[in-house]
Amino acid sequence: MVGYGGQPEATPRDQLLAEILAVLAARRNHDGGFLALAAGGARPDATAWAVILLRAGELASDWVAQGSRWLQARQAPDGRVSIAPDYLPGWWPTPLAVWAWLGNRDYAPAREAACRFLLRHRGQPVRDHPGQIDPRLRGWSYVAGTFSWVEPTALAVYALSQAGYGTELTVREGITMLLDRQLPGGGWNYGNTIIFGQRLRPAPEHTGLALWGLAGQVPHQEVAASLAYLEEQLSILTTPLALSWTVLGLAAWRQLPAKVIDRLLACWQRWRQSSLLDTATLCLLGLAALHGDPAR
Amino acid sequence: MSFWTAVQSFSRSRGLTRRGFLLSTLAGMVLGGLGTLIGRQPWWRWLLSGQYARPAPPAATFVARITSYSADLAAVIRRGLLELGLTPADVRGKRVLLKPNLVEPCRQAPHINTHPLVIRGAAEAFLSWGAAAVLVAEGPGHRRDICQVLEESGLEEVLREDRIPFIDLNQQPARPRKNLLGFSRLSTFLLPDLLQEVDLLVSVAKMKTHHWAGATLAMKNLYGLLPGIYYGWPKNVLHWAGIPETIADLNALVRPQLAIVDGIVGMEGDGPIMGTPKAAGVLVLGTNLPAVDATCARIMGLNPYRLAYLTLVAGFLGPLGEAEIDQRGEAIAAVATPFALVETIPAHRQLRL
Predict the structure, then answer these.
(1) Which residues are CB-neighbours of B181 under 8 A, at least 6 positions away?
(2) Which of A155, A189, A245 to mutate against chain B (most B CBs within 10 Å)?
């Protein structure tokens, strides 16, 4: 069990997690929700990420319970968990809620309802697209009635697979869609590859997330170039979100080198005071620390 | 009861003959249909919104010839503001928001984004005129890691050195505001609450071609105001609702007070990301964004009347005609330099001036 820190000879990972926990404590509302930033209101995506991290690190079980309940209270009757109660089309936090509720029997009905929603509601296909992707393949969108993109699709594929729906045709199509959006030289960006004959650039945060979602779903050779891209990025990245997803993507495919925790600590030291550090990024840094510690 | 029986019953109860009832019903249907058609017209909704009552910003633009980012950009911007009829009194005590274009920064391609030194120059100009505060805010459309966006663009260093606060608009809470024009099918736009606290909104855009919109200038730059948490990465909700239409609708709603367009080194070819650098050597300022965009288009060798989003707003958000725009500073003919277009890109066809 990882403690809150303050233990004698705390490891760098424990120290990092303790400091992240301190920031999370300041962003936690009395009703169990977590703020997305240092100020403002609680948000479903932020709360889900906090629960995901705390459960993964076996930390603050009371916060996990209250956060899970907070998410359930914001679930719509059709199972979706939207970014705001008065903006139902913004359904992209739904797979995060599924992930947060995984393995928690108390929230099995909520989790199942969210899964059923995801299986019924996906991104919109289009007939024509000037890029070299197959626009008919359906993954998941950020907002109802729009196109499928890498981030919501990778999260949905991961969450549904973990919840036991990995063999569903919609999930298999999501995997096919993710592979279709992989850049020819490796890596992913938000979800386009070649437009008007020009190959676009990959982004580490999207690449890491796509690889996280595809781990265990496709053979290694299908994503080898993308893993190589992330390995190259690992040595140069200095910003928390990109670095965290790079670590998680490589860890998911067991290609994470040692001594990553030092990189994560250095990144944290550089950005910890920044007002730009949102709760999702904070939690991803914590998850990266958990997955990136060679002692685990 | 049949329809006609019901009609007869209704008519008798109101002392109407059947003929009288039919004529009055037909008249009502025609008038109602006309009303519905008129009510759908953006210009009518514009009139009903009362926005026309706000004084239209003067359609003056200022073009400065600048060949290097190491020039004293703050001085150029101050001169531009004066030429546009603005004085320190218009800025003193105001809260200024600078909105750059940081769609997808790449260290090896600085021409993608508003140059950090233009932001520095603008901040310095407004602060020297007594602005209460200047902050920079953007909601990049493609990248999720805002810290890396700032690092890769070089803006992080400027913000840190000059102590200018930055807000990630993608994460900001927002409220729905009714779509006044209605060119697109979006009934509302979710605008960040932060905008309510801003006195002077400045669109600090980059002069680039665009493979969907034809060009991305001061008006399209406003896409970055909309938080990604409601619109996605990219802001696909806007694409589905129509790019020219949503550009027009958004500008009618937000109405920035000023535009500064960085054309010192812009982008030609396959913009807004994969095009090549184009040293146009200009900085363009203006208080009427359609007029600014029309002026920039002419400098780029593009016909503003072929940019769909501009033609939608011509005449009521601002003029496009050269004769209607009070052009200060350099003459367009003196600085115009054709931006390369790509024939295989539909939005680029027939765009040449």
Answers:
(1) B42, B45, B46, B248, B249, B252, B253
(2) A189
